[in-house]
Amino acid sequence: VKDAEANAEADKKRREAVTAKNDADGLVHSTEKALAEHGSKVAETERRAIEDAVSDLKEALKGDDAESI
């Protein structure tokens, strides 16, 4: 029981990181798909800002920190 209590916080952080990664992966995929389909309808500066944000998110996904994701 003590081990379970001691590991509960670590388990919670791992679950949060996995959930954040899954959500972020879905967001990256849907954003890239939307840009591929409708990117020509978006202003160049906005498209670049979106692409930069997606790139930053992909970089954050390489780690396990839910906060940075």
UniProtKB/TrEMBL annotation:
Keywords: ATP-binding, Nucleotide-binding
Pfam family, one: HSP70
GO molecular function, a single term: ATP-dependent protein folding chaperone
Region ranges (Disordered): 1-28
Top-rank taxon: Bacteria
Name of the featured protein: DnaK
This protein's encoding gene: dnaK
